[in-house]
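seq/struct pair 1
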Amino acid sequence: MMMKKLCTVSFLLISTICFAQPQKVIADKIVAQVGNKIILRSDIYNAISDYKRQGQEASLPPNPECAFLEGQLIQKALVLQAEKDSLPISEDEIEAALDNQIRGFIREYGSQQVLEEVAGKTVYQIKEDFRQVFKERKLADAMRAKITENTKITPNEVRAYFEKIPKDSLAYYESELELLQIIAIPKSNKSVDEYVMKQLYDYKRQIENGTKKFEQLAKLYTDDPGSKETGGQYSINRNDKFWDPTFLSTCFKLKEGQVSNVIKTKFGYHIIQLVSRTGDDAVVRHLLKIPAITEEEIKLATNKLDSVKAELLRKDIAFGDALNKYGDDENSKNTGGQISNRDGNNFLTIDQLDKDLVLLLKNMKPGQYSVPQVFTDERGQKKVRLVYFKNRTEPHRENLKDDYNKLSLRAVEEKKLSKLEAWFKEHLPNYYITIDKEFKDCKAVKEWLKFATKN
């Protein structure tokens, strides 16, 4: 069972790569080696410190040093085999992962300047520090995928997996709902749009003539709650997909300190100031104003969805076609209208729904459409939704009939872990392994110690 425990715990731990905080310097040394791949004492203890810094201390296993060493040993062995098998790793993929990590650091520290001051290095030097770590992780992932590829599960294997679970350990599921929605976004009228644009041009003049600073105005007047406290500031990258294209292109046309003209995006109207730029990375400030929506515009959107509901009930149009034809929310369209939780699960418990949605569903049954409902999204924007109550499960103890898909996913993961365990048992005797006596009592690396002793 060595590898099963190891794979479920240590692979999770080694997947976390963080920016090490300044800490007390401790004597470093090589504590383990697999082939020509060394593991430093600092690799283990810095990883644990970073894990704690992320607020995950409660999920650390007993003797975390042993668990993290185990994870490193696994990774090194997989990397060695990946190199031997010449598994292809895209440099562009590694570069993209590094860029994404750097953007995460910048968001965490507030700006590129602060990051570089804390690290005592430029972002380019930080990237180079992480390059080998990222490359090894990609190689290990590729090797793991190769070992477990084509792993399939049969219904009989799923049944056998289910029957192994002790009856008192079977999961209990609350009632879960599957919901779809079509969202209509009320359009503000022309006079309100013109008023908002006039406001933003006035802010632009105040900034440019030195009367006010951009960050002061953003803290007072922006309608973006995500950047209000930081004076409208964001760290962005030209290749990020989640930014509005108009917003992104405007940012990279500006000179440092310059304030843009008023632009319109799907979120509202903005002015943007470029704070700094390095290649495809930039720090910007923006001030967002969302035009107020009147009752008249809300009524128009509501009437639109009333008509859509009538078409659906008459079966004149399928739900997917209605979503694409009448829906205004691109994110909702991309998910087929599914309402999901933060983990991407489409089956939701009642406590995962907003209170207005709970009230809307109160007297509904699966297969029914709601009345159009006005709601406010996380950005404070008023929208209207038509909800389709697709399905509801009853509260129940886990069973094959209702939970086959969940059980089959877990069963196939167990089968993959068994393949990995068999692979390691076959290959461990072929590796040159050393483990420092500091870890000689670690149960987690017991199997590795056997072969380290022989070598």
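seq/struct pair 2
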Amino acid sequence: MAVTKEQVKYIASLAKLEIDEKDLDAFTKEMEQIIEFADSLNTIDTEGIAPTAHIQGIENVLRPDSTPVQFDTEKLLSNAPEKVDTCFSVPKVVE
């Protein structure tokens, strides 16, 4: 597939890239090579090959649920310099 300079300029504008006129020929040639490579993948015989989403088998690793550790609130707050109800009280740091 032939790639034109206008197509390269358009794609560059979509990507918010600025391409100098002196580099335009090189980018056009490179994009043409990339598209030729992608087209060559269409010639590969994939008959009988199952589609995959990942190269390795993926399984969920599950663990049994456990009861969370519970602490005594009064014991936790016993060393707090200041407390309000069941919460630590700290000075305001954002004005």
